[in-house]
Structure to design on (660 residues):
């Protein structure tokens, strides 16, 4: 490997020997092509004509009135596929094509990354296999159906907690046996080097656009940029353009599930300790022996015990702050925001909105907050219905 | 304490190295199984400390990890377990495990404590030669041998570098993939053994997919200094959970057969 893939003490590539050549090949290809004229021109065209970039920066007028300061929404939910995941999938998919790979594999939690990979598999004519936890398959059945329509094969993973973590385990195992012709299209800015760097690069378009749009529309940079954090790809994508703007606060929001105190959450930055899983050193939800703990979040896309290594460093250096919001607040704000704006936010992205809502009337009216609305919530309509916070009722049951 | 060096020097044939997950299916049964394996002629033991997310392992060993964890195995008990085996017989023990468990325990303390318990080496499945510095010095300081993996897709220069860091033996992965029984040996393994033999004098032990006595014989003929059999044996445990008392004898029978055919 040419680079160590470290972000301070975090990151690295802690993988079995058999995967090293594949990661080396990927690192080499990435650095060969990511600034290559032909590659970037092709990717830019795909971003524009296939995915629908640039996405708008929208002033959420009624929601702003409600909270008492200005909230701008980066509309990644408008992208093809309904989430920011397509940015990374087009980038990595194109890389796979340039590398001469013919097969794609990917893990997925909410199904957004699985869907985006399936779309790109169809687009490039590559055989695609998606690893998904059996519980996630159940709670995100619409996306499963869409993936199949794109021609992907869905592998149901029943190990462990049957969620994203286990899907990654199984995808890694499969890759071990099929390293020669298979490209593992990793979905988030986590996992072994070079993935955190590659994913950040292909998601950095979010931040580059948002920053330019702020200067153009508002005439200044925002005070706060916020995004939800599971593995952390949409957050690092938007944060990356603002890292040197010291007056812009960067705030990542983790899923507190049923509450940090209950242990039933997926917020390693808020409540985890440093450890090693899936090839990277990061904050991790684990017991004192280092066994990985079960996680819980209403949003399948954030239901993961670890978090991207660069976020870990940003937390330690205090360049970014991380907070966590609970499922019930997410559900409330899902309703509030949708009724205000007529935009259904993905439950993942709703975490960032819920934090914004928690700041209602606490910040000056001229405060400008940019929220990365990383995905749309159509996929979550059923789950919101099933988990709706109970309204006070006259009847007891 | 018996070393790898003494063991390989004394043996006139390939070493028989069974793998078990410590505490599978429970502490006491696991101990009885491993004692039976020793009595059946195991030359070295390869033992795993169970981990919740074993990415290098196929379904059989994954299930063993889950069984052991569910039965309450943890790293402290694993240490006692190893000491119990060592007091039964002075046999070399290599650990095969995942890095996070070591990292949480404290790297230096882990090697020191487990050396004291009687371990000869610790192979970390998810730590490659690129990060050798994180464990090499602590391991050597504790008096342990080092073992790293070579796989069929490891380039020759890299294999040389790995060999130079292995003081115990080279864990040679026979195939591209995870652990698990296979019907036939991978066609990659014999060229790999030949390559390693041409570049190093460090003993070459072969694991992953070694499932039949005939496989062991073939590997020995190809020059392997040891054969590591894991999933095939762990499957015996899995298949006899309803009658745990019968497991030691069944494991013993299988290993005795392999031993006999190895000559």
């Amino acid at each position: 490997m040419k680079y160590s893939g470290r972000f301070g003490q975090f990151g690295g590539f802690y993988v079995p020997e058999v995967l090293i050549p594949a990661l080396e090949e990927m690192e080499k290809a990435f650095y060969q092509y990511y600034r290559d004229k032909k590659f970037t021109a092709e990717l830019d065209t795909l971003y524009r004509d296939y995915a629908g970039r640039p996405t708008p920066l929208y002033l959420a007028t009624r929601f702003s009135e409600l909270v008492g300061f200005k909230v701008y929404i980066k509309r990644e939910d408008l992208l093809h596929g309904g989430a920011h995941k397509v940015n990374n999938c087009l980038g990595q998919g194109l890389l796979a094509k340039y590398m001469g790979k013919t097969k794609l594999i990917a893990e997925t939690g909410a199904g957004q990354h699985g869907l985006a990979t399936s779309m790109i598999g169809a687009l490039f004519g590559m055989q695609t296999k998606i690893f998904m936890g059996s519980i996630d398959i159940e709670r995100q059945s619409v996306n499963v159906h869409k993936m199949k329509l794109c021609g992907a094969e869905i592998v149901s993973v029943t190990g462990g907690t049957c969620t994203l973590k286990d899907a990654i385990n199984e995808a890694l195992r499969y890759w071990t046996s099929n390293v020669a012709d298979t490209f593992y299209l990793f979905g988030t800015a986590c996992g072994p080097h070079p993935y955190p760097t590659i994913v950040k690069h292909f998601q950095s378009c979010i931040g580059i656009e948002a920053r330019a749009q702020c200067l153009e529309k508002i005439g200044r940079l925002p005070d706060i940029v916020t995004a939800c954090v599971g593995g952390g790809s949409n957050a690092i994508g938007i944060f990356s353009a603002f890292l040197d703007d010291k007056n812009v606060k960067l705030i990542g929001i983790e899923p507190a599930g049923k509450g940090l105190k209950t242990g039933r959450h997926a917020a390693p930055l808020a409540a985890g300790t440093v450890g090693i899983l899936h090839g990277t050193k990061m904050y991790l939800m684990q017991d004192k022996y280092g066994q990985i703990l079960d996680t819980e979040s209403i949003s399948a896309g954030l239901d993961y015990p670890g978090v991207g290594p660069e976020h870990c460093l940003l937390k330690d250096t205090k360049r970014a702050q991380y907070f966590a919001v609970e499922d019930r607040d997410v559900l409330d704000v899902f309703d509030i925001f949708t009724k205000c704006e007529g935009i259904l936010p993905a439950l993942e992205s709703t975490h960032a909105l819920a934090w914004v809502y928690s700041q209602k009337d606490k910040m000056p009216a001229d405060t400008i907050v940019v929220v990365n609305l990383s995905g749309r919530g159509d996929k979550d309509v059923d789950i919101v219905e099933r988990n709706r916070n109970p309204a006070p009722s006259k009847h007891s049951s | 304490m018996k070393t790898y060096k003494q063991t390989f020097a004394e043996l006139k044939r390939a070493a028989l190295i069974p793998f078990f997950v410590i505490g599978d299916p429970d502490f006491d049964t696991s101990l009885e199984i491993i004692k039976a394996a020793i009595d059946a002629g195991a030359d070295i033991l390869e033992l795993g400390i169970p981990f919740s997310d074993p990415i290098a392992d196929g379904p059989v060993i994954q299930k063993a990890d889950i069984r052991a964890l569910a039965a309450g195995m943890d790293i402290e008990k694993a240490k006692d377990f190893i000491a119990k085996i060592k007091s039964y017989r002075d046999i070399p023990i290599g650990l095969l495990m995942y890095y996070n468990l070591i990292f949480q325990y404290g790297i230096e303390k882990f090697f020191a404590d487990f050396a004291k318990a009687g371990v000869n080496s610790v192979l970390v499945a998810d730590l490659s030669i690129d990060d050798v510095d994180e464990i090499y010095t602590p391991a050597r300081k504790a008096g342990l041998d080092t073992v790293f993996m070579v796989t069929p897709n490891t380039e020759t220069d890299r294999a040389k570098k790995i060999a130079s860091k292995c003081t115990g033996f080279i864990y040679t992965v026979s195939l591209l993939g995870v652990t698990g029984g296979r019907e036939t040996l991978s066609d990659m393994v014999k060229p790999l053994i030949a390559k390693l033999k041409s570049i190093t004098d460090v003993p070459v032990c072969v694991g992953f997919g070694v499932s039949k006595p005939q496989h062991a014989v073939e590997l020995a003929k190809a020059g392997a200094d040891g054969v590591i059999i894991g999933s095939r044996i762990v499957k015996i445990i899995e298949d006899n959970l309803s009658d745990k008392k019968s497991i030691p004898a069944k494991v013993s029978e299988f290993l005795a057969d392999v031993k006999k055919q190895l000559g």
User: Anything to note?
Assistant: Strands of chain B lie at 15-21, 45-48, 93-97, 121-124, 147-150, 169-173, 204-207, 226-229. The first strand of chain B starts at residue 15 and ends at 21. Chain B touches chain A through 39 residues (CB under 8 Å). Chain B has a mean pLDDT of 97.
